[in-house]
Amino acid sequence: MAIVEKVASNLQLTYSMGIGTDGKEVFKRKTFKNFRPEVLDADILAVASGLAAVQEPALSEVRRVDESVISDLG
Q: CA-CA distance, 59 to 16, in Å (whole number)?
């Protein structure tokens, strides 16, 4: 049986940078790494909102990316 252990969480913010020369919307991503895995989603969203309030580009999306180690100790 596989055993899954969460080891870290990352916060990924996506910003809308405007429209490119090809007419498509351009995005930029910024990742903040190594949040403790037990941090609540609401707390990560609060951090993202605080960061967005002091930055110029419009925040388009907030993602939580969890990292896990999978092992078979059976």
A: 6
